[in-house]
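Mods, move this if it's the wrong board.
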Amino acid sequence: MSDILSTPELTSEQISTITRQTNYGTWRFQKTWKPLHIADAEGCWMIDGAGKRYLDFSSQLMCVNLGHKNPRVIDAIAEQARELAYVAPGYATSARARLSEKLLEVLPAGINKFFFATSGTEANEAAFKIARMYTGKTKIISRYRSYHGSTSASIAATGDPRRWAMEPGGKANGFVFAPETNCYNCPIKHTYPGCNIACADYIEHMIRNESDVAAILVEPVVGTNGVLIPPPEYFPRLRKICDAHGVLMIADEVMAGWGRTGKWFSVDHWNVKPDILVTAKGITSAYLPLGLCATTTPIADYFEDHYFSHGHTYEAHPLTLGPAVATIEEMQRLKLVERAAELEPYVREKLEALKAKHPAVGDVRGLGLFFAVEIVKNRSTKEPFNSMRDKVEGKPLIVDQIVAKMMADGVAQQAWISHFVIAPPLIVTKEELDLGIAALDEHLGIADALVQP
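Not the wrong board. C-alpha cells:
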C-alpha cells in the first residue's frame, strides 16, 4: 500500500512546469513566464534545482534583510509552533506582548498602538480605515511613483502603472495623487524653476482645494519606483502642512524600514514622526508574513470610546509574532542597522564609478544598503529607454535584458522599468557587494550601445 501511495520525487523541470501550468505569475504576461526552481537559500545566496548558486542582490523583494536561513529565526518559528500555533485575535498571547514591547524599542517615539496584519497591503488597508474613522474624513492624498499594495484600496492608492488595470479606482476609492519627490527628474520643474520643495507646497495646494482630506500617504524613501530620496527640508515642511490643516501623515515603511536605509525606519533620517506607520517585509525578514499598522497615542485614545471597525482572522497570528521578536533581536545582536549605514559610502563609491564609466547611467541615489541605478537614453534630457506604458504592454525592457544576463552570471537583481534596485541582505560582505556590482558593470554595455547623443 505504501508503494501505491508514494509520490515520485519531482525533477526541477517538472516543478517549474507544474508551477507554470497551475499558478498565476504575478505582474506579468503569463505566456512568457517560466519560473526558476529555487531549491535552497542561505546567507546572501540561493540555489536552484540544478545546484547553481545566485547572489541575492535585492534580498528577493527587498525583504530578506537578515539573509536566508538565519538559525535563530528558524528556531523561533518552531518554538512558537510548539508553544501556540494559533488563537483568535481577541485573546492575549505571550508572543503578542513580547513583540509589542520590542517594537517600542525601535519604532519612532510616540508610535505605540499596534494592529498586526499579514502583509504590507493589509497593514495599509488598516491605516486607511483608521485614518478615516479617526478624522471623519474620506480622501487620502497619495503620490505618483508609489506602490502601496494590490488589494482594492491599496492598489487604488498606488501611483504606478499597476493601478491602471483597476481603473477607475483611485478617485472612486477616495484617493487623489500628488507629484512624487524626485530630485533627479522633478515632475514639476517646468512649472517651478529653481524648485524649493514645490512638491510639498503642491500638496498643501491640494489640501486647500480638495475637500475632506483625511491623510497624506507617503513612502519616506520610495521603494520599487526608484529609491527616491527627498531633500532634507521636505519632511519637516510636510509635517507642518499636515499639522496646519488637520491632516494625518501615514508613512509606508514596508520596504524602506528595518535597517534598510541605515536607520530602523527611513523617516528617522528627518526626525519627523508620522501619525500612522505601516510596515512589513523586514519585520520577520520575510520568513513569515507579518504586517504592522502602528499609530500614535491620540489616535489610540480616540478608539477608547469609538468603535474600532476592523479586523480579520489572522490578525496578531502567534506564529508570525514570535519570530518577529527573534528577527529584531538578531538585528540588534548583529548591529545590522549600523552596518547598513557603515557600508553606504562603500556602495556609493562603487556605483558612482559605474556612472562615470557608463554613459547610460543617469543617476545613482540611495541610503544605507538601498540604492537605485537609473539608466537613460540621454543624460541631458534624462529620457528613459522604456516607459510605464511599455511595462504594462509587455514590450521588451532594457533593464530586463541586463537582469537576464546578470542572472546567467549568478547574480539575481531586481529592476523596474528604468532602474535597478541594489538592496542586498544587510549581512552582505564587501566581497559580495563587489561581485554584484561587477555583474551590473559587465552588462551595462547593452544600454550604453543604445545611448543617443
